[in-house]
Amino acid sequence: MKKILVSIIAFAAFAVSCSDFIEKDARGTQTLENYFQTAQECENYVNELTHRLLLPNDWWTLIAPRVTNEMSTDDAWMGNTGQDSGAHRPSSQYFITPDNMGDMNSMYTAHFYTIQSCNIGLARMAQAPISESQRNQYEGESLFVRAYCYYELVNNYGGVPLYTTVLGTSDLKLARSTAAEVYAQIEADLKASAEKLETIEVYRNGRINKWAAYALLARVSLFQEKWAEAKQYANKVITEGPFSLEPNFLNIWDVNNHNGVESILEAQSSSVQDKNLGCALPTLSGARGEDKKNFPSNDAADVLDGWGWCMPTSDLENAYISEGDVIRRRSTITKWGEAAYGDEVLNPTHKFSLNDNKSGRICRKYYIPIATRRALDKKDGHLPLNVPLIRLAEMYLTRAEANYHLNDADGAMADINVVRARVSLDPVVGMAGPNLLRKIYKERRLELAFEGLRLFDIRREKDPSTGRPVIESLMGPNGTFVQYNLNSTDPYETTNTKEAQDKGINFDPAKHLVWPIPQLEIDLSGGIIKQNPNY
Fold it and tell me: What residues does the SusD-like N-terminal domain cover (predicted)?
């Protein structure tokens, strides 16, 4: 009996939950044995892998967990105080258990599903009758996708089962590899990806290229405190890549500036009305309770009315204010009643339901301008917001942090000053030691807020005063972020207590530097997979 190939899902239908491929009579159908016979078939397969990783149709599989990770930091509340928070509360409030993980469970399963699909594609494309250039393109992209899956897995859950070949049900009971072993495979995949993609001279928007591989190598090197390698790869992207900083910070997330000059890897979207190719972020994190009467037009076409999750904290806003950072603050946060930055004429006083919003703030980076809203008959699932996943400013900040640890304070200041100059901030001069490191950390927070790095950063960054992870000084009963909230006088956050004001008080450094492994996966492995400590 042969395995039917209806689509990528039919022959990659795998999760760590270990159900086998469905087997049916495959006479007259495409199968694993007769697919991958043309370049178009290989490209279609890789396109689906990339789509599944970067901007999946099912928003809850990856987009929601990534947003939930933001809610687990000092940058964001859950925010929606009018609906059930069960998907986000376990991690954002640090109540998470292996049996109650909310949407952090779906990311674990989805990534292993994609890893198995990558393994299938790599095995089959190695034998496909296509040109060497085509093989390099498709294999290079697949290796990157596999590496990115493992990058998110190791940063969320620690060491996980590691495999690079096609597995059947008899092979699936794998023990966890160490985090170091997972990182080693990520690096190997990215180096192989970059080598294969070096031969590709023409770059197309939305496709993975060698610069994405080098940039992710810079990031994972930084996360492992491999300072020389982090500097090497970041420097390569900065000095050899075709990228430059956007002159206007707000344009990075502009719906009319897809794949701008700064974006190294950007998840694609489209507002084509008869397709479901849009981005879910503006809906998931859009202002809840918009009303046409609050817009000058008094027109329902101007209303998006999002779900209201992942609302900025006043603590984050204060971080911008303390730097006099008006441009990045307004490009990142819109407070209730303020004009939407860049959309002041059509939305001069952005108002929404304060009864349903914890902080009286929304994320400006996810905002859809009024003119774009008016052009859409369908909005949910059709919003044209591309999502930058890796961009050039991060490479400057990566090189800055690496320079600091390589005892090059001048180089570190030069790099952060490039990023600061773009938003009209004075250069940092004459700074060294712990204060310079803190400044680098702060620049990462202000520059990259709501771009998927804050939780990973505060877990890995070391507080210069204690040598412990920064998150330990922020969260827990005595954490500075917790104490700030408990003593806050913010007029929005303190008057809407339907989300608890003691956010982060339940953080326990003995376990919360990673999330637990889903209990179902441990059970299905027969106990071979071991749980993270203290869960």
Answer: 96-222
The whole-angstrom separation of Cα 265 and Cα 145 is 12
The percentage of residues in the chain with a pLDDT greater than 70, rounded to a whole number, is 93
* CA dist., res. 101 & res. 515, Å (int): 8
| CA 62 to chain CA centroid, nearest Å | 9
Residue ranges of alpha helices (H) inside 423-511 are 433-448, 454-460, 470-474, 480-486
pTM: 0.93
Q: What is the DSSP string of 19-63?
A: PPPP----TTS-BTTT-S-SHHHHHHHHHHHHHHHHS-SSHHHHH
Strand partners, 462: 469
| Rounded Cα–Cα distance for residues 276 and 290 (Å) | 23
Burial class (CB in 10 A: 0-12, 13-18, 19+), 163: middle
List pLDDT tens digits, range 19-43: 333 334 444 576 777 799 999 999 9
Q: Which amino acid does the sequence have at 162?
A: L
What 8-state DSSP symbol labels residue 264? E
Residues 6+ apart with CB under 8 A from 234: 215, 218, 222, 395, 396, 398, 399, 402
- Decide if 287 contacts 352 (C-beta within 8 A): yes
| Contact assessment for residue 36 and residue 125, using Cβ atoms and an 8 Å cutoff | yes
Q: What is the pLDDT of residue 171?
A: 65
Cα separation of 306 and 190, whole Å? 37
Looking up tokens 């954490």 gives 479
Residue 502 has pLDDT above 80, yes or no: yes
Q: How far apart are CA 497 and CA 78, in angstroms?
A: 12
Decide if 401 contacts 412 (C-beta within 8 A): yes
The C-alpha atoms of residue 274 and residue 344 are separated, in whole angstroms, by 31
- CB-CB contact of 134 with 42 (8 Å): yes
pLDDT in tens, 73-96: 999 999 999 999 999 999 999 999
Backbone angles phi, psi at 65, to 5 degrees: -60, -35
Nearest to 261 by CA among 246, 240, 282: 246
pLDDT at residue 434 above 50? yes
